[in-house]
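Lecture 7 notes: from sequence to structure.

We start with a single chain of 313 residues. Read the sequence below before looking at the structure.
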Amino acid sequence: MRSFIIGGAGFVGSHLTDLLVSRGPVTLYDNLTVGKREFVARHLETGAATLVQADALDLDALEAAMAGHDVVFHLAANPEARWGLERPRLDLEQGTIATWNAMEAARRNGVTRFVFSSSGTVYGDVSDPRGEGDLGSLPISLYGASKLAGEALLSAYSECFGLRCTICRFGNVVGPRGTHGAILDFCNKLRAHPDHLDVLGDGRQAKPYLHVTDCAAGLLFVLDHAPGSLAIYNLAPPDTTSVRRIAELCVAASPHKSARIEYGGGAQGWPGDVPQSRLLPDKLAALGFRVRHSSDRAVELAVAEIAREVFGA
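Now the structure, written as tokens:
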């Protein structure tokens, strides 16, 4: 099997590469603005993977690199939802347009198997647990809007051009090699200001946190088992973890255990943030896959892993 990963040198992409190299050659397509060559260096050195440094917005380059592959994993996106507040076009480009480019390159090359990383943000600002069919509310972030637009395009390409698509709506992915997110943000803040930790919002925001190893395993599972021409799954644990808990764990894992935690107040961390989110994983469980780690355990593991990367052993 020849696998093609857009965003392959990034956080999730590098962990997926760790699993895919045993199945055959893997091509990593990444512009390395967030992804890092060192994340996949050992696979590049052995020849199990090849890195094409190019942008997903370059359709011609993407089409040429994708030729001859059997499956496309599209993982590239704006890695930090808040960046869209400063650059409103960012999610349109890195989300919607890049996703269209990916599926159009697949169509032109006759690659019929496509796996897309979506997000629980497509469900909008709702605190009730959401299943795959529960799209009663629209997204409130530009990031979420770009993901929902990508899902709609995939549905159309599946119907019109025979692209066999699987969509995974992730929880908040955490773990080693993280390039963004609250845990990395908190650890970096503590390194810069050892006496205090500033936290956006009131700390009561709570979301499902998915360990990156469970995320990669889930992507591989749906590749093997998802039925039909279009399948959508929540890929997340059923529970949630609060921002307050994450902040406390980060302080405890840092060299600055007396640092005080200062909350900014308000239910949202930033405009477009969904304060309370919960995803139902029942559909994926019925297919045969359950994540190994609860949200709390995923956070505990990720805090320890990222603290080692930021502060050293």
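The longest strand covers residues 113-119. Keep this in mind for problem set 3.
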